[in-house]
Design brief:
The protein is mainly alpha-helical. The chain has a domain of 44 residues. 32% of the residues lie in helices and 0% in strands. The protein is extended. 6% of the residues are buried.
C-alpha cells in the first residue's frame, strides 16, 4: 500500500495494525498518533523520509520534590 493511502484508510476506519496471518484478526487503528507512526514507517520504506533520529544516552533524572510536613 502506498503511503498516500494511509491517512485516508484511517479516516474511513479501515487501517489495520500488524501483518496478515492465517486465522487471526488484525486490530483496527483507532488513535491518530498510531496512524501517523504507520505513515512515517511507510514513508521511510519508500525512501521519502530519512532514518529516525537517535537519542543520546539516558534521559535526565527527575527532580524529587519534598513532601509537606
Amino acid at each position: 500500500m502506498p503511503s498516500s493511502e494511509i491517512m485516508e484508510k484511517f479516516r474511513k476506519g479501515r487501517l489495520h495494525s500488524g501483518k496478515k496471518t492465517k486465522g487471526k484478526k488484525r486490530k483496527i487503528v483507532r488513535k491518530k498518533s498510531q496512524a501517523k507512526a504507520i505513515l512515517l514507517s511507510y514513508l521511510r520504506k519508500e525512501g521519502k523520509l530519512g532514518p529516525r533520529k537517535k537519542t543520546k544516552g539516558k534521559k535526565a533524572p527527575r527532580k524529587r520534590i519534598a513532601g509537606k510536613g
